[in-house]
Hints:
- This protein is an alpha+beta fold.
- It has helices at 14-26, 74-81, 149-157, 159-174, 183-186, 188-194, 200-210, 228-238, 278-284, 299-306, 311-317, 359-362, 392-407, 433-447, 456-459, 463-482, and strands at 6-10, 32-36, 48-51, 54-57, 63-64, 88-89, 96-100, 103-106, 111-112, 115-116, 220-223, 241-243, 247-253, 258-263, 286-290, 292-295, 321-333, 342-344, 353-358, 372-379, 416-428, 451-453.
- The longest helix has 20 residues, at 463-482.
- Its cofactor is FAD.
- One of its GO terms (cellular component) is cytoplasm.
- GO terms for molecular function: oxygen-dependent protoporphyrinogen oxidase activity.
Amino acid sequence: MRQPWRVAVVGGGIAGLAAAVRLRDRAPAGTEITVYEQSGALGGKLRTGELAGQPVEFGAESFLMRDPTGAESAAVALARRLGLADQIVHPTVGQAALVIDGGLRPIPGGTLVGVPGDLDRVTTVARPTVDADTDGGRPLIGPDADVSVGALVRSRFGDEVVERLVDPMLGGVYAGRADDLSLVTTMPALARAARVEHTLTGAVRAAQAAAPRAPGAPVFGTLAGGLSTLVEAAVTASGATVRRDAAVRELTPTATGWRLTVGPPRAPDDGSGSRRGGRRAELESSKVDVDAVVLAVPARPAARLLAGPAPAAAASVGELDYASVALVTLALPQPELPELSGFLVPSTEGLLIKASTFFTTKWGHLRRPDGLALVRASVGRYGEEAHLQRPDADLAATVHRELSAVLGAPLPAPIDGHVQRWGGALPQYTPGHADRVGAARTALRAAHPTLVLAGAGYDGVGIPVCVRSGETAADEIITALGGSAR
């Protein structure tokens, strides 16, 4: 008689939880699913908290409503599957701004993550090079090539378009630099068009046309109850056994699947080079046998786990670096805020803040009759982690001072505040990232088809991408186990 499958999902972020839901929906009845989460909290970068009696996101804020083809995004589909579709709400204010020369200017329309399809529309914020984007008689990039976004845009539109438009747009998402980030991974639609089109303006327009959006259709959504409700509903729907504070320290292939060495998280380094509690953790470790593993953790811990069974894959995965950020949220009594969703800050402005969101302006369901406003600022760029070593109070005071300067008037003193630090949170996809991940996955499929990677470290950031990554991993596991004699 066929025994129930046993599948381990290592990592309790949204990618891992989406994999668990897909396994429950599509794997044979009775499949045993266990989610191992090293921390005490599920959801990864999805974390809804409370400030001044108001729910507020301390991590990811929203999700795209559509995927690159124009179809419903994986995040919307998951919310629908979990019975949360009626909780999806949209921004009531969509216009954002850029900080240029110390003041706010509206972000021009018609761009693709800041890359313009019409140079005339961006002259309010940047002076493009107007004669460099010429038709050279061949596509912008080769069929298998990858370049940095900054290198491509600088060569066609000049430095100001990169520094004042593209860099802050990408920095708001990745906390990285356009000159370092892969076109293929961060802007796949533009990369596809660039393999056909001979000019960058033509490529932008082709990419936009490939994913048409109905006039007035919302771009972003969130859940009225907070994004943590998506996490909670996914845990329930998956029916998985969840083990919090459970660190998977080793993966060992067996004749029928995998053996996991699981134990409590190790204590932080005490500065002496040893970790307190290490001996206790070793004594409390246990061995668990499973048929398959979805490895939905960031690249560095994934590389450590892959080092034994798949050293070549580990080497490819381990090349990925991450940026750290802090999110500073202030509760301000009746401030005078512009009718904007927020603003982005080019690094050339010299501010600690790289982006800010006016939560209670942007999201109508969060507005309060007493006029209390929640304003969040993102702090930290790749390579500037030293700024994040400041105490919470210092970060909050700097954010308050810089917000006041940008808005041109002193803001009232906050009545409450919160600093959320996300260490190593945002992957930095350098050119060639997709090829490196593809090589790692090819090696795993050949040697260990029941071990599959999922998550932002491999497929891109954003809730829809992570959900799709987890679901795809689950489908691969089901396919791999479907031919088993068990």
